[in-house]
Amino acid sequence: MHKKAKVHHQFLVFVQYLFNIKRSLFSFLLCLPTSLLALILFLLLVYNGFTVFYVHLPFPSKIHPEPANFSAGNSLKKLSSTVMYAVKEENPSVILKTHLPPLQNQSIPVLTTVNHHPLVSRPKKVRRRKSVTKLLRFEADSKQFSARVKGFFVNSVCKVRFFMTWISSLESFGDRELFAIESLFKFHPNACLVIVSNSMDSVHGSLLLKPFVDRGFKVIAAKPDFDYLFKNTCAESWFNSLRKGNVDPGGISLGQNLSNLLRLAVLYKYGGTYMDTDVIMLKSLRKLRNVIGAQTVDLKTGNWSRLNNAVLIFDKKHPLLYKFIEEFALTFDGNKWGHNGPYLVSRVVARVSGRPGFNFTVLPPSAFYPVNWRRVGIIFRGARSESHSQWLQEKLGEIKRESFAVHLWNKQSRKLQIENGSILNHLISDSCILCNSSSL
User: Are strands 160-166 and 272-275 parallel, antiparallel or unpaired?
Assistant: First the structure.
């Protein structure tokens, strides 16, 4: 019994000793500054989380340098004081994405393992390649493009040539796009319009255009022959690389970027006027030659700050068009919105302004872009009050006096309804031929 009591006493002494150590340790920690104590706890948590949830993610082996940002120089042309207003347009936010390696076995589901690459069922590279294949699947039929367009121009008495591109599906070619054609022929009844499109060059596409053809207007849709349109330009080698899979089409719609290139190519090949399918014509463009429109201006200097490519009017083989195509091929980036479109024409014009051999004019925003994309809703709304009604009348008068066309900024306005008494309601009444478009 005495021996057991002695062991029990020693155990109690040991427990008391451990308790004293624990108390001393906590006393020491409590004496430390709060920030140091928080740092120690944070490091412990990080270490614990790292050991439990560690996952190895691959990173691209090569980082492509960013192209230089555009800045307006002192040589830029000053614009008319009749510009209604201009605002600074911010770049849309960019979401960075981690590129995953292609699958060895496409049937494997999404899976993450420690110290291994993630396995995905449909990597982005495969999906992007399919988008290229989808756009190029009509190449065999498109070889008739040159002969068809040439015959169309020869057999038609064309006072002016117009071009549109449509890379989307036939189902999405709706009232707004049809009214763009309607307004074009309202002020250019002797024009010839070529719609460069795979989907519109079809039986159903012909039915959409039939009301115009029946009234004697000259319009056709033709599948683009990329080889013919890009021949003898920098776009030729770029497109061949894209076709072989050596160009990353990026996360932005390839159709949108090809539309940016096609409009330049058809104007370079034939000369004439290009207009987007969300542009409403307000008066004739026949007196304009070799012009591009400013989207915004710097209110302090009066110089343009951003150009746009929704309306382009240029002679055949104009050197500025060649520079546009060259810039597209050399600086293509499919992951930045606008980089191959409005930003592209702005970069090139800023560089060549004032140089000999480039004869063109930059028109003020009031010419084609009287309403900025951020405020496009104001032309869809009717009067809310007597003062608002007066303002709408004044704005409508300005647009009628100063604008050749109005860009509707389709992405921002597609879901907006046209209200009675709105600016757009009046413009439609002035620009219609069939006058049966209930909504745009």
Answer: parallel
**353: its two tokens:** 């302004």
pTM: 0.72
Amino acid identity of 369? Y
Q: Are 399 and 427 in contact (CB under 8 A)?
A: yes
How does pLDDT run across 100-147, given as a tens digit for each residue?
333 333 333 333 333 333 334 445 555 566 656 666 655 556 679 999
d(CA 258, CA 183): 25
Token digits of residue 335: 């992951």
For 274, phi then psi, to 5°, come to -105, 140
- CA pair distance 432, 175, nearest whole angstrom: 12
pLDDT at residue 390, as a whole number? 96
Per residue in 401-424, pLDDT (tens digit) is 999 999 999 989 999 999 999 999
52-80 mean pLDDT: 38
Sequence-separated (6 or more) residues with CB below 8 Å from residue 253: none
Task: Report the amino acid identity of residue 361.
Answer: T
Mean pLDDT over all residues of the chain? 80
Q: Closest by alpha carbon to 86, among 369, 328, 276?
A: 369
Of 325, 323, 291, 287, give the one whose Cα is nearest residue 308.
291
Complete edge-to-edge strand list for the sheet that includes strand 218-222: 218-222, 191-197, 160-166, 272-275, 304-314, 291-297, 361-363
The Cα 407–Cα 427 span in angstroms is 12
Phi first, then psi: what are they for 50, rounded to 5°? -65, -40
Nearest to 160 by CA among 193, 182, 195: 193
Backbone angles phi, psi at 439, to 5 degrees: -155, 155
Alpha-carbon Rg for the chain, nearest whole angstrom, is 31
Structure tokens at 256: 């949108």
